[in-house]
Amino acid sequence: MPVQKLDGSGRRILVIDDDLAIRVLLQAVLKRMKFDVELAEDGAAGLEKIEKDSAYDLILLDLMMPRLNGYEFIDRIGERHPEHRPHIIVFTAAGKRGVEKIPPNAVCNSILKPFDLDTFIGIIGECLSRSHPSRSEPSTQSAG
Known about the structure:
5 helices; alpha/beta; single chain; 6-stranded parallel beta sheet; 35% helix
């Protein structure tokens, strides 16, 4: 799905990644599509933002981060917000083995780094258009 075809008006996304370049890139792309974007440098900072305001439509989550990694984040979000858990898309350089460690139904989808932006935007659109529960097995996609 081309970037211009997805309208994020009224939707909030939290990007959690320890790589500043990834956060800035995703923020720029998502804001161009009219999403309200918040950034967090690791899972601990992401949880703090969710504790203050959990009204996110989607969380874009890296798995490998300092302080609180993506796996720990997924566990904690499931414990603290089981009734209104935002969709989560995991992106990682850890490969398919890393994604296979995620519990079933915990994430909406996953994509391996480096990823093609159009493919990634397509996954965002798919996740935003469905309701929970998430897929029982995330489909790991890699492009680019």
